[in-house]
Amino acid sequence: MKKKVLLMGASGSGKTSMRSMIFSNNPASLTSRLGATIDVEQNHVRFLGDLILNLWDCGGQDAFMDSYLSTQRSIIFSHVGVMIYVFDVESREMEKDLEYYRDCLEGLSQFSKDANVFLLVHKIDLVRDTERNAVVQRKAAELERASGETPVKVFGTSIYDESLYKAWSNIVNTLIPNARNLSKHLRIFAEACSATEVILFERTTFLVIATSSRTDSSDAFPSGPVVLHALDPKRYERTSELIKAFKQSCSRLREEFRSLEMELAEFTAVLDEMTKNTYVLVVVHDPAIETAAIKMNICMARKKFEELQGDSLILEK
Q: What is d(CA 123, CA 142) in angstroms, rounded to the nearest whole number?
């Protein structure tokens, strides 16, 4: 099962850098070595086993953009599941960027009416911390106006913090069949092992697939006993970022990352394989619950989640 993902935006906006970090496991420090994308660079990224992301990284130079919108129009904009359009937060040619963006929306409406559209206001690390939220909100309002009646989701992103993982987790979540059903069973699993929260990650990218939270918002608090504990609203993305960095450290030492256990005064956390394509993080605040019990519950749940993952992919075929 393939899902076509268009990655578009002006040259130098940071498209290839974010792609290399998310899907090639390159650290931010190495992205400066990447050259500009020439025309269209296609990558087939295996995601959740049988789900393959057909990622089209489209060069943003004017000549290429003009070609996409004319001679290559039907090729570029047909069968698109998601379009991600990247805007440099400090772009000095915003009017031209918006003109190309609106033209791309027209291409989508012509060939892929049901495609989801995500807009990334990128390189927000260049904006002062005290002004960052206001700048992103202002840019989001401008982009929503430019989008007309097309529903869009806007995220402020940087390759230097967890914001990139938040945006891409939301993006891939729209491509995962039956993601809501996975969340439902994660809640059942969380209740069974008295967990504060359970998070399911894709194995390679460590993007968040589903959580035991009651809503789709990453800022939401799960119901039940969880409300007794102050949970960081950025916890999912920060966990993705930290674990991926730890995996890279293991690779440099020629060691294979398998699992992680933490027993702290406030809580216990276990990160372990759930299926052949996913990891699960179980967070428990009850000190009476042993780490061994958490690991045993994960082991017992594996078969069910393998079935759920297989069923959800079959539904889309």
A: 17
C-alpha dist (Å) from residue 312 to 8, 29, 78: 29, 37, 24
Q: What whole-number distance in Å separates Cα of residue 121 and Cα of residue 90?
A: 9
- 37 — pLDDT class (breaks 50, 70, 90): low
User: How are beta strands 80-88 and 2-9 bridged, if at all?
Assistant: parallel
Residues 6+ apart with CB under 8 A from 70: none
What DSSP string describes 170-194?
HHHHTTSTTHHHHHHHHHHHHHHTT
Q: Give dist(CA 36, CA 25) in Å, integer.
A: 19
Phi, psi torsion values for 219, nearest 5 degrees? -95, 0
| pLDDT at site 243 | 81
Tokens of 172: 């891939």
Q: Global pTM?
A: 0.82
* Beta strand extents in 51-140 (DSSP E only): 51-58, 80-88, 116-122
Place of tokens 């496991």: 25
What is the spatial distance between Cα 302 and Cα 54, in angstroms, rounded to a whole number? 28
